[in-house]
């Protein structure tokens, strides 16, 4: 039996593949089934437009914070220059 490897061959034949599960859509926390189906069904143009709008809004927000930081930094350096040398606080 061992010489002809009968056991190994028999076990290999017994292995069966697991059946694949069919995709089943159901609601997730925070999104109902209707909302999910709407998102799946929407056209790529609409999706791209929404993405562009979101990116634009994020970029504007980042730019605004950078401008605020720059203005604050300029204000601090201006006040330091006006104090002069050797000033004690």
TrEMBL record:
Q: Which domain of life is it from?
A: Eukaryota
- Compositional bias ranges of the Basic and acidic residues kind: 60-78
**Gene Ontology CC annotations of this record:** cytosolic large ribosomal subunit
Q: What is this protein called?
A: L24 ribosomal protein
Q: Is-annotated flag, keyword Ribosomal protein? A: yes
Basic residues compositional bias, start-end: 14-24
Question: What Gene Ontology terms describe what this protein does at the molecular function level?
Answer: mRNA binding; structural constituent of ribosome
**What keywords is this UniProt entry annotated with?**
Ribonucleoprotein, Ribosomal protein
Q: Name one GO biological process term.
A: cytoplasmic translation
Region (Disordered) residue ranges read 1-24, 60-89
Concerning Gene3D superfamilies, the annotation shows: 6.10.250.1270
């Amino acid at each position: 039996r061992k010489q002809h490897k009968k056991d190994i061959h028999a076990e290999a034949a017994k292995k069966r593949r697991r059946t694949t599960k069919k995709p089943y859509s159901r609601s997730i926390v925070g999104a109902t089934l209707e909302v999910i189906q709407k998102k799946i069904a929407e056209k790529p143009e609409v999706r791209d437009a929404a993405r562009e709008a979101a990116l634009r809004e994020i970029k504007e927000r980042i730019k605004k914070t950078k401008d605020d930081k720059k203005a604050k930094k300029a204000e601090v350096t201006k006040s330091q220059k006006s104090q002069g040398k050797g000033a004690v606080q």
